[in-house]
Design brief:
Layout: H1 2-14
């Protein structure tokens, strides 16, 4: 019984972080997007002279 629990624990811990090879994108699909998506970023507001500190 002790050996079975030890074997189960070792098998469970050895699989941590292993990526499966079966989930693949279908042919012709676009590549995955990066985060953050630059297309969705807001444009910076135009600067005005009133916002600049006086020198």
């Amino acid at each position: 019984m002790r050996k079975a629990l030890l074997l189960a624990a070792l098998l469970a811990l050895s699989a941590c972080g292993v990526k499966p090879h079966f989930p693949k994108a279908p042919p012709g699909s676009p590549p995955p997007h990066t985060y953050p998506d630059p297309a969705g970023d807001p444009k910076p507001a135009p600067s005005t002279d009133a916002e600049k500190p006086a020198s």
